[in-house]
Amino acid sequence: MELRHLRYFIAVADAGSLTVAAEQKLHTSQPSLSRQIRDLEREVGVQLMDRGAHGVELTPAGKAFLDHARMALLQAEAAKEAARRAAQPARPIFALGFMSGAEIGLLPEVNRVLRDEFPGIEIRLSSDYSPVLAKALMRRKLDAAFMRREEHMGDLGFRRVRTDPLVFVFPSDHRLASQAAVAPQEVGNETFYLPSKAAPAVRRVVLEYFNRAGIDLKPEHEVHNVVHAISMITSTRAVMMLPAYTKRYLPGSITTRPVKGEVPTLDLIIAYHKANNSPILKLLLSRVGKLAEAPC
After folding, report:
1. pLDDT > 70: what percent of the chain?
2. Domain holding 53: CATH number?
3. Helix 3-15 to helix 60-86 angle, to the nearest 10 degrees?
4. What pLDDT shows up at residue 94?
5. Which pLDDT value is given to residue 221?
6. pTM score, two decimals?
7. 3-state secondary structure string, the chain?
8. CB 274 within 8 A of CB 137
9. Same structural domain for residues 234 and 96?
10. Domain check: are 78 and 213 in the same one?
11. For 272-293, what is each residue's pLDDT tens digit?
12. Which tens digit of pLDDT belongs to each residue from 173-192?
């Protein structure tokens, strides 16, 4: 069994279609992909997929195989990354990820902490969505990441850095702008946008908050990042909920108001792979209390 068989199987399982997986994900022909899946099933000794007119569905055996296939690919990526790092010069290198926007307040303090103890250190920075950072940690492409607590974090450990409250966001001349705080019931009839599934932690907290308030939220659109949110709020006069630290990015045409009553919150954590024994990581984790004091 080769790693490419696992990649092909996962692509088909995720797409739910041999044709879509072949054309859009793997850039190969559908007959060739079908052959590869049949070869895999022959080697495993059981049928992994049911083919039908409306696509493919995993058999019970296929569902069990899928989880192990994903983990095998992650471990293969981790092995490659470990080999590459072992071949690099002795200069200390630390790969650090930030959920987009979180680095503004934290990076200066992180830089100071690490460079005071390791003057020659090379800090490699990346910024992305929280779920993407979690996958990079699992593959050992990052040493640590400031992100949200995601589901299915597997072999990752974490420590809480701070808790971010959510606020309402809308145009500065909106009728709600005259209020000191806004209750969830007051936005029930407004055009409301949700963060997309690229930011599942924020999305989940917003939906759970409105559910507890007894409001059947019917979001009209989804936004993918703060820039997209600014564009949509400005052009359609919509309302959103975002973490309070995003206020620093907003133009004068958009304002925020705190939540009246129960305030939904999100933890910002520093996550890492539990098998990572880097002394640089240990130092950073020991200073989490100091990092929590950095401005949001």
Report:
1. 98
2. 1.10.10.10
3. 130
4. 95
5. 86
6. 0.68
7. CCHHHHHHHHHHHHHCCHHHHHHHHHCCCHHHHHHHHHHHHHHHCCCCEEEECCEEEECHHHHHHHHHHHHHHHHHHHHHHHHHHHCCCCCCEEEEEEECCCHHHHHHHHHHHHHHHCCCCEEEEEEECHHHHHHHHHCCCCCEEEECCCCCCCCEEEEEEEEEEEEEEEECCCHHHHCCCECHHHHCCCCEEEECCCCHHHHHHHHHHHHHCCCCCCCCEEECCHHHHHHHHHHHCCEEEEEHHHHHHCCCCEEEECECCCCCEEEEEEEEECCCCCHHHHHHHHCHHHHCCCCC
8. no
9. no
10. no
11. 999 999 999 999 999 988 787 7
12. 999 999 999 999 999 888 99
**What pLDDT is recorded for position 89?**
59
- The residue range of the domain holding 242 is 163-265
Number of structural domains found in the chain: 3
CATH number at residue 244: 3.40.190.290
Identify the domain boundary among 62, 85, 108.
85
Report the CATH number that the domain containing residue 153 is assigned in CATH: 3.40.190.10
- Position 285 in a domain: yes
Paired with 221 in beta bridges are 193
Q: Evaluate whether residue 275 is within a structural domain.
A: yes
Sign of the alpha-carbon dihedral angle for 219, 222, 227, 233: negative
- Strands 156-171 vs 265-273: parallel, antiparallel or unpaired: antiparallel
